[in-house]
Protein 1
Amino acid sequence: MSGEMAFVSCTVNSVTQEFHVRPEEMLIDVLRDRLALTGTKLSCDLGACGACTVLLDGKPVSSCATFAWQTDGMNVRTVEGLAAANGALDPVQQAFIENSAFQCGYCTPGMIMLARALLDRDPSPDRETIRVWMGANICRCTGYEMIIEAVEKAALIPLETGK
Amino acid sequence: MNEMSANLDVVGHDTVRKDAVPKTTGAATYTVDVSFPGMLHAKVLRSPHAHARVTSIDASKVRGMPGVHAVVTRDDLDGLNPTYGYFIKDQPIVAMDKVRYIGDTVAAVAAETELQAVAALEQITVGYKILPTVATVEEAMAETAPELFEEEPMGVVPAYGQGASGARRLGRNNCYRFSYETGDEAAFDRCDHIFEDRFVFSRDQHFHLEPFVTVARMDGDVIEIWSSTQNPFPLRKELARVFQYPENRIRVRVPYLGAGYGAKNNCKTEPIAILLARLSGKPVRFCMTTEENFLTQSQHAAILDVKTGVMADGTFVARSGHILLDSGAYSDASPLVAEKAGYRLPGPYNWQHLNIDCDCILTNTTPAGPYRGFGGTQASWASESQVDIIARALGRDPLDLRMQNVKNLGEAYVPGESGIDSDLRAGLKVVADRVGYEARSRGDGRGMGVSIGFKDAGGVNKPSQARIRITTTGGVYLECGAIEIGQGIHTAMSQIVAELLNTQLDRVVYPELNTDYTPFEQGTNASSAIIGTAQAVQQAALVAKQKVLEFAARELDCGIDEIELDDWSIRKGNDAHPLAPMIMGYYGGTGYEFTGAGFFKPELDHAAPLESQCVSWEFGWGAAEVEVDRETGLIRLLQLVVSGDAGRAINPLVCRGQDEGSAVMGLTGVLFPCMVYDGAILMNGNGLDYRVPLATDIPDGFVSILQEQGHGPGPFGSKSIGEGCMLPVASAIANAVEDAIGVRIRELPLTPERVLAAIDEACG
Amino acid sequence: MRSGDTAGTLINLSALPTLCGIEDRGDFIRVGALATHWDVETSPLLATRLAAFQAAWTTIGNVRIRMTGTVGGNLMAAERAYDGPVLLGVIGAKLIFLTDAGEISLPALSAHQDYPDRALLTAIDIPVSMTARLSFDRSLKPVVSVAVGLDGGVVSVGVGCAHTTPFFWLGRIDDMEDALSAALPDPIDNPMGGAAYRRRMVGVLSRRLVDRLRRGDAS
C-alpha cells in the first residue's frame, strides 16, 4: 500500500466490521468515530496511560497506539462488549461496581479491559500479580488499592457462560 | 463499624454509586463524547517562545484552505473583553501584544477534521521580537528583570476582615500579595528559641485523564456549551463578560468530568470554542492533547521562608512567614491560592503572634492555578517539616511536640474564626498507632515520621442553592450544582436526600447540570459540596417534605404530628396511605410536583479574616515509614498510613477512595520529578515522560483509616474528605527520612539525587 | 499521527512468521526481531536456557507494552530510556540484519554506533553459556540504568539512560571500578539528572550488581 486506503475486516464485540482506512488511522478513532463505541477513552495518545485499552485477540493493547489496519482478521473487544448476551455484567464490572473501584471513571473502561485480560490468563492471581499487571494503566483518582481489591474480588465471581 | 449510623437506612452505608453502571459499561457521557453532525474541530497555534512581542500575525493563507471554516487571531476580537482571570483579568483568549510562555495561545482554527486544522495552523505566519525571559521566581524578582506586564492589568483586591489584607504590584512581576497578621510582634522577643528555615515545594501537574475540552454551538441567540468544568456558574459569568453577552443567553452543560483536581475552573477551552462556533456558525469541539494540558495549567511551585519562636518547654509562641508562589505567566487563581497558602501556614497550633505574607510571582512558564490542596499542600509541607526540626533541636519526640501544641476541639483557629471541628490528638494517635510509631525500630536506614495536614474547607463566602422536586409517584429530582467529578457527590447527596425523605435511594435522580435549570452553585471546589451545597440540599429536602406532610395532614384531616412519610406513603398509626392516589384526588389525574428550595451561605463577618468564618476544617493525618539507600539516595516507602475525619461518612467506601486517592496524588510531588524545566522549557510535559504514581509504586504498607468523629457541619455531622489526606504526605515522608538517616531535606521532590546531595552535605 | 504525520509506504511485516520465533540454535538462541517482549517473557526455551535474561527482559515496560512491543522495536527505536540495547549488549548478543549484500551480523555492543544502510533487523542471536551471568538495576530510571554481565573474571557493564546512546565497558573484574570510571564519557547533565550523579551511580550500581552476581543471587 502506498498512501492508499487499506481494507480491514475484523470482529468488534462479536460483530463483523469492514472498513477502508487510511494507513495512519488509529484503532481508537475507528472505534469511537465510526462505530460510536465511545466507552474507550483517549487520553495521553502515546500508549502510556492505558485509558484506551481494548483487547485484541485477548491481548490488552493501547488502541491509540494500534493502527486500524493491524486489526485485520482479528477480534477486538471493548468495554461495551463485556456483558454477557443475557445482559449480565462481566465479573470485573460487577466487582468494580461493588468495590467502588472508580471515581471519575475515565480510566475505568481501560482498567476493566486490562483486568479482564489478566483473569482470562490467570483466573486466580495473587495480589502481587494483580498489582504488577494493573501497574500498566494510570488512575489518578483512586490510589489503586480499591482497584486491586476489585480484581481480587472479580476472580471469585463466576463468569456467565454462553456469551 | 459505624455506630452513629445504626438508625439510618441509607446514610452511612456503602451503597453502590449512582454512576457505577454507566462508568463501568462505557455508557457514561463525558464532554469528549459530545458530538454533532457537521461539528468542526479546533486547534490552536502556540508560542514557541517564552517571552516575545508579537510584531505581526498573518492568517490570510489559512482562509480558504480545505475544510477550514474559521480562524481567530488578535484581529478577530472586536466587541469582546478579550482577557480573563479571577481577581485580575490579564490572560488573553489569544495573544494580543505579547506571548508570555512557551505554549501561550496565539491563534486558533476550526476545520472539518483535526488534521485539516493542524495543517492550517502551519500556514499562519507570526512575527516575534524575542524578549528576555524569567523562568524562576528569583529571576522574576530581580531588579533588572523584564516585566511580564508593563501596564497594570484590570483587576481588584477584595475586601478582607480582621488581620488580612491584599495588594497588587508591590515588586517586579509581583501580581498579588496576601498578608495576615495577628497578635503582638514582641512575642518573638520572649521566645527561648527561634527557628528559621527555607522550604521549597515542587510543581505537579494535575494529569486529569480527560483533557480540557469544550463543545460549543449557537442555539438561536443562545451560546450553548458542553464543557469539562468544575465551576459552570462563575464560568458563565466570566464568558458573559468576555463576550459582552447576557448571562441568561449562555447555557453551560456539564456531563461527567474525567477529573479535574482543581484544574477545570474558569476559562480553558471555552472562549476559543465559542468564538470559532460564532464565526463558523457550526458546532465546534476544542479538545486539548495531554501535552497541551501541561501548557495550560499547573500546581504552584513555592519557596516558603518560615520563622518560628518557641519556649524551652516546647510551647509554640510566634510564627512569621514569607511565601513565594510561582504563578507562571498569568495571575489565574494565584491570588486565591496565595490567600490560602498564607492563611494555612500557621497549621492547627496555638500562636500568640502570626505575621505572614504570600506573594504571587509571574514567570515565563505555564500558568499555575487551583490544584487539590490549594496552597494548603505547600503550607503543610513547610509547617509540618519545621515542627520536626524544632522537636529534634529541643530533644523532643516530634509526635509529643505536636500533641503539646495542637488546638483543642472547638478552639478558634485564629481570632474571629470558627472552632476546630476535629479532635487533632485523637486523629494523630490513629495513624501513629497503626504505623507502629512508638515501638519503631531504627537503623538500616529505616525511620518513621508523622504529620498533620491541614486546611480550611468550604471556600470563602460561597453560596449554594438547591431544589428538590418530588413527582406524583414519588420520584425525586435532586437539583444542585455540585458536579460529579469522581468524588461520589451524586451518590452522597442522593443518600442524604433518600434518608431525609425516608425513601429508597433509587427513587432519587440527579439531573445533568445545565445552567438554564440547575440552581446556582459557586463551584465544585474547596471541599465544599458536603459541608455547603449539601446543607442547601438538606434544607430543600426538608422543605419539600414539610409540604408533603402538610398536604397529607389536610387530606387525612389530622395533625401533622400524627403522620410520617414512609417510602412515598403516609403512615398514620398502623395505616398506610399511598400518596399517589391522594395527590391525584386533589390535584387531578395528571398529577403534581412538590418542590422545596434550599440555600446555604456562610454569614459575612468582618471579624473573620477572610470575611466569613470557615465552614469546617479539613485534616489528613499521615504517618510514613521509609528505608533510605545511603549510596543512591533512593527512598523506599515501606508504609504510608493516612486518615481523614469524615465527621460522619455518608458513604464510607466512597470516603475511603477520597482518602487513598488524595494520598497517592500527594506522593507525586514527593517521589517523582514533577514538572522539570530547563530554563523556560518544560522537559517532560507528556504522558510518557511525566511520572505519576502507578499501582506498582504503592507499597503493601499503604493503608487509609476513616475516622468519623461526628463534629462536622454537614448533614448528619459530615465533613469534607476530598483533600485532607494529600496534605501530610510530603512532610511525613521527609520527617521519616530524617528519622531514618538524620538528614533533613527541605526541598521537594525527594529525588534520589537530591537526597544523596543532602546526605553528602550532612556528612561534610 | 494525530498531528498530521502520514505514511508514504506501509509494509506489514507482522505477516512474516520467520521474524517472530524464538529458536534453539545450539550454542545460541535466535530471537526473531518481531518476537514481542511477552514472547520472551513466556518462552519455555528461554526459561530453561537463559533464565536471567528472561527475568531481566520482563522488567521492560508494562504488560500492555510487553504484549505488543517487539524486541526489534525496542532496539531500533533508539530511545535513550529503553533497556533492550544494554541488556543484549552485556550478554554478547549479535544483531542479524538483512541487507542488499545479504545477511550480516553485528555485536549488540556496538551496532547502535553505526547501523547498516538499507537493512532490516531480522533477529537477535543470544549466546548460551553455562558460566555467563546477568544482573540489571533499573531503579534509578530515567536517570541511569546499569546491566552487568559476568563470565569468569571478565565483566561487561552496560549503561543506559545516562548518555545519548548506550555505553559499554568490558574488562577484568578486579579493576572495574577505576577503569570503568576512567572510560565512562561525561553523562548528560540536565535538570532531570546531573552528570556527577549519573556518573557516581554507574559506579555504585555496577559494583552492587557484580557483588550480587559473585554471591550468586538471582538478577
Protein 2
Amino acid sequence: MSDSPIVMEHAEHEARPELRHHFADVEQQRNAASLGMWWFLGTEIMFFGGMFCAYLIYRRWYFEEFAAASRSLSLGIGTFNTTVLICSSLTVAMSVRAAQLGNRKLQVKMLLLTLVFGLSFIGIKGIEWHKKYTEHHIPTFDYNVISGEGSLVKGNEHLLGIDKVENDPVKLRERKVEIQQHTKIFYSLYFALTGMHAIHMIVGVGIFICITWMAHKGRFTPEYHTPLEIAGLYWHFVDIVWIYLFPLLYLIDRKPIS
Amino acid sequence: MSEHSEHIVSAKLYWLIFLSLIVGTVVTAWVATVDLGKYHGIDANTVVALFIATCKASLVVLIFMHVKYTSEKMTKAILLAAIFWLLLLLVLSLTDYSSRYDGSLNPLPSDFTAWLA
C-alpha cells in the first residue's frame, strides 16, 4: 500500500513545503515555472521587437542623420557599460551554480555583486543621459542639433551631405531643417529603447533584492532554487537586449571620415 | 521523490563564456572604427557588428540560460517560435520598406530614367 502513487505523492508534499498542492512533484513545478518565464520572455521579444523594427526602418530612411547622431554617443562609455552588464550576467549564472551546489555564502556574494553591477549600469546610463540633456539632445522643445559641444553637424558635414548643397541656399536650408528633424527621430528612438531597457534593469534590480534576501535566509537549496533560476532567465534576457542595442545605437558608422 | 536531472555547468565554462563575451564586446567596438567597405550596397561593418552580437546572444542563451542542457522541449519550441516571429517582423517589414521606390535609397537605373524622360 505504501508505495502507491497517491501515498508517495502525499509523502513528497509532506517532505517539501515549497511544493504547491496542485503539482504532482517538484520537477513538474520547476518545469511549469521555467516554462512560464520563457513564455513571458517570448512576449518581451515581441515588445522589444516592435521598437527594434521601428528603429531599423527609420535608420534605413535617414541613415546619414542617424550615423551622425550615433557618433555623438560615447563609444568608451558604451563599451564599458556593456562589459558591466556582461559581468552581472556572469555573477547571476554563478549564483545559480552556487545554489545548485548548496553554497549559500557564495550565492549571496554573487547576488550582491549582481546588484552592484546592475546599479552601476543604471548609474552610468544616467550619466550618459545627463550629458545628452546638457547638449540639448533630448527630443523635446529645446532640441538643438548644433548646440555647442554637442553639435552633430561639426565634423560630419560630408557625412550629412551638407558640402554637396553648399552653393544652393534653398537646398541648403531644406537640408538643415531635415538634419534637425531626422536626428531628433534618432534620439526619440534612442531614449525609447534605452529607457525601456533601463526600466527593465530597475525591475530586475528590484527582483534581485528580493532574491538576495531569500538566498540570505537560506531559502534556496540544491533541490529547490526555482525563483533564483527564473529571475536569472529574466536578467540574462535584459542583457541580450543590450547586446543588440549597443551595436545598433552606438556603432552605426564609426569609420574615419575620408 | 523525483530525481533531479538538473545539469550543473562547470565554473570553468562560465568563465570561458564570460571571457568570450568580453572579447566580443571589445572586438565589436574596435572593428567599428575600421572601414570594412561596402559589398553590393551593404555596409560590411553593420553585418560584422550584428554577427558578433548574435554570437554573444547565442552564448548567453545556450550556456547562461541553460538552453543547451534543458530536457524540456517546450523551452526550445518557445524560443524558436519567438525568434521566427521576430524574423518575420523584421525581414518582411524591411523588405517592404527597402523595395519601395525612393529617390535616394533605391534610385532608378539611369537608362530607365532616360527612357522615362
